[in-house]
Amino acid sequence: MKINVLPESMASRIAAGEVVERPASVVKELVENGLDAGAKEISVWVEKSGTSLIRVTDDGDGIAQEDLSLAVERHATSKLKREEDLFRIATLGFRGEALPSIGSVARLEIVSRTREMEAGAKLRMEGGKKSNPIMAGSPYGTTVEVRDLFFNTPARRKFLRSPATELGHICDVINRLALAYGDVHFRLFHEGRIISEYVAVPELKDRLRQIFGLEIAKEMASLSRSQAGIQLTGFLSFAPASYSNSRYLMTYVNRRFVRDRTLSHAVLQGYETLLMKGRYPAVVLYLEIPLEEVDVNVHPAKYEVRFRRSTEVHDGVVEGIREALKGAAKKDVSSVGTRGGEEMNVQIREPSLPYVSLVPRASHPSLGSDDARIPPADHRKGEGFFTNLEILGQILGCYIICASERGLALIDQHAAHERVAFEKMRGDIERGEIEQQELLIPQTVELPQAEALLLERRLGLLSRLGFTLEPFGRNTFVVKAVPALLPVGDYRGMLRAVAAELVEIGHSEELRQSLEERLMTLACHSVIRANRRLEREEIRALLKGLDEIDFATQCPHGRPVLLEITQEDLERMFKRT
Ligand SMILES: Nc1ncnc2c1ncn2[C@@H]1O[C@H](COP(=O)(O)OP(=O)(O)OP(=O)(O)O)[C@@H](O)[C@H]1O
Ligand SMILES: [Mg+2]
Predict the structure, then answer these.
(1) Read out DSSP for 201-262?
(2) Closest ligand (CA of 60)
(3) Which of 121, 182, 197, 359 is buried deepest, with most CB atoms within 10 A?
(4) Closest residue to atom 4 of ligand 1, CA basis
(5) For the CA of 58, the nearest atom of ligand 1
(6) pLDDT value at position 550?
(7) Are 9 and 88 within 8 A, CB to CB?
(8) Contact 236/339 with Cβ under 8 angstroms?
């Protein structure tokens, strides 16, 4: 018999716990089982984002009929034999926990056939009770079907997020596994529609393309380094491509996807000052290390590991990343111009007040409160603080200098443009009259698949904001129209940032309300023109625009628009008082 029930002494030493948290955890366990069985083709069907059906079919070794009953027993595994095996785990599974756990919270059916069997065998399990195996027609390999997940634990069902989010998690799980198994053909179907297919590829670089899309993948350099028995390979984005979360920072240890502090810390340290605070790179890092040097039996979901030589591992990764980045930087200089005008590092800025003082507030006893420097909001249409400024000029291509009644006013022209556009957009949306401009030449944008899925579900929201997008083949969209107030430009970088934003927001419900505003900020921010000289008329129009928006009632986002240096400030600075 291949599958054995582990003796209590071993079972109790295995980190086990909540195995099935959401549909994606079921998918992860079943696909891992297929990979452990040496499958070269794995198909996953889900319905209702996995809550009503998850079916995983593989063409692996299969389970012998006499083993089938054991497969759903707790602590029954074919992957560990002796105590020592626990310290050199070579398979993705090892606990003998997954199938019984799934079978206790869903209706489970396994049909399997090994190469030695004349026909397949089938076993059912429901709410923890199993049937006797019976004969069933089956190709070689295994099909596991999981229906009505959490049917008997409604409390857990309540914790599930929106269908799009759950489906997104399933895509993530498959993408992560697929990134480590380029030689395996993966398919994912949702409600009968194929949503990803990764054919087997000779090189992981090709898998990277399949998953991240050509546009992102071609911006990534490869990495390879081997030292003291530790082998590092992978791909990494070089600055300035960066993301607002660590979603694309993926680390693998012996082909297992892990979230490991040591590794992610080392990766970020490798980037050092190349990334702004709060920005993350896209990195897919594969670490190969002798089995006995890494303990994978430390986390119930197997997402964490412990290294015997963790300092060496850490420093090796830092060095590897640095080396690769240096190499990439050299190449980058010679390929300037080929990267296009795409802005991948679009970001959302922290909220701050629209007006700030150059001199700390405490040193302003004369002003009393901030209100004194915020112009009254009742100036409308050409009759306001900004319109009344005397324009002195523009410096450094982006600051407008004006004389005000109180002293000097400095305006950040980009921030001003952005705020005016933002407020105008918001007003138009509120009135339901956002004006659109059709693009003469529609732009196409390719997105990583999980993001494409979410974006597709949010096309309605985007159209309310003035963007007309249409799905255009797998993971690709055509941009047909944009809000009229946005200057002509390349909208791809912005849409990519919007999609990334959706993913992030999709995971945190409390941010949902501010979604519209954040997307608008992004939209306005990412298409602001580059530094350029403004004609006096343009400056005047901009100042007028600033007066037309209601500062007092707006929820301010972003950098300040205006800095004022009052007469008192000047006197203090020149030590006249
Ligand atoms: N798709 C499959 N193909 C072949 N054998 C399988 C398959 N799925 C499960 N098995 C067999 O059933 C056993 C139990 O599977 P299960 O996933 O519950 O435990 P495991 O993979 O050994 O450990 P873990 O709980 O860490 O996943 C496996 O050890 C394996 O022998
Ligand atoms: Mg398993």
Answers:
(1) -SSHHHHHHHHH-HHHHTTEEEEEEEETTEEEEEEEE-TT--BSSGGGEEEEETTEEE--HH
(2) 1
(3) 121
(4) 62
(5) 1
(6) 58
(7) no
(8) no
